[in-house]
Write a structure and sequence with these properties.
With 258 residues, the chain is α/β, with parallel strands linked by helices. The protein contains seven helices and ten strands. α1 links the parallel β2 and β3. About 5% of the residues have low confidence. The chain binds 6-chloroguanine.
């Protein structure tokens, strides 16, 4: 079963970023998984709106649809021995074939394989991926996917093995969701206020430092006051205070970024 996370397009909604007049989404995303329901979460919030508006075309596919045995087997024991199971290559090959047959983008699609042994996923990589037409996420479970799938895929896709960080998740789905959210919010039109992209942590304008703390009304809450400089109306002093706080927080938490 393929889950198209798109509500029926009743009318062409003019959203900046959608290809002019064609009705074609700015970005197509496919995710292959034995738990495609994970990707239902993308219908929420701003990303859900972007899907509804036709800016993003997101589809989740059940890997077991590409098996042919009665038990819909997707895994087997590892050659060479050891604990755990490895995902069999055949269902992956068929799933990827079906996506290639359905691909109408000008450039070869990007195949992202979330893996704790991948290259570190960064904001820079996300910004690069935000400019692509078609992303395919291959979400493995167990000890991973038979490596020949990645070797074969390199002739048809731009293959990227990517990791979120130095910890282990049970499968690629949650990592893929994090990567999808990070990438699609950089696609023009997905975020309402592009200025909010400029000031946040890891963006170029904060020089790769962590974001300063933020406050809103009331000015006093449970006897705690908002830092006075933020109420001063002196924009230069506010900028200086924020830059100083960014530097302090970065020095304490992430000295590697300085
Ligand atoms: Cl991308 N996948 C899995 N399974 N675990 C992870 C990860 C990815 N990144 C960090 N841990």
């Amino acid at each position: 079963m393929m889950r198209r996370l798109t509500t029926a397009a009743t009318k062409a909604t003019p959203v900046s970023g959608e290809d002019a007049g064609t009705g074609k989404a700015a970005m197509r995303i496919d995710a292959i998984s034995i738990f495609p329901q994970y990707f239902d979460a993308l219908q929420l919030s701003l990303i859900g709106k972007a899907i509804e508006h036709g800016l993003l075309d997101v589809r989740a596919h059940d890997l077991r649809e590409f098996t042919h045995d009665r038990h819909r087997t997707v895994d087997d024991t590892p050659y060479g021995g050891g604990a755990g199971m490895v995902m069999k290559p055949e269902p992956w090959g068929e799933a990827l074939d079906s996506l290639l047959a359905d691909d109408d983008s000008a450039r070869r699609p990007v195949l992202i394989v979330p893996s704790p042994s991948g290259h570190p996923f960064t904001q820079e990589i996300a910004a690069d991926l935000a400019g692509k037409d078609h992303l395919v996420f291959a979400c493995g479970r167990y000890e991973g996917i038979d490596h020949r799938v990645l070797d074969w895929a390199a002739d048809h896709f731009d293959v990227r093995e990517l990791s979120l960080g130095d910890y282990v998740l049970n499968g690629g789905e949650v990592a893929a969701l994090a990567m999808i959210e990070t990438v699609v919010r950089l696609v023009p039109g997905v975020i309402g206020n592009p200025q909010s992209l400029v000031e946040e942590s890891y963006s170029v304008s904060t020089e790769g430092m962590l974001e300063y703390p933020v406050y809103t009304k009331p000015a006093v809450w449970r006897d705690l006051e908002v830092p006075g400089v933020l109420l001063s109306g002196d924009h230069g002093a506010v900028d200086d205070w924020r830059a100083e706080r960014s530097r302090e927080i970065t020095a304490e938490r992430r000295p590697d970024l300085l």
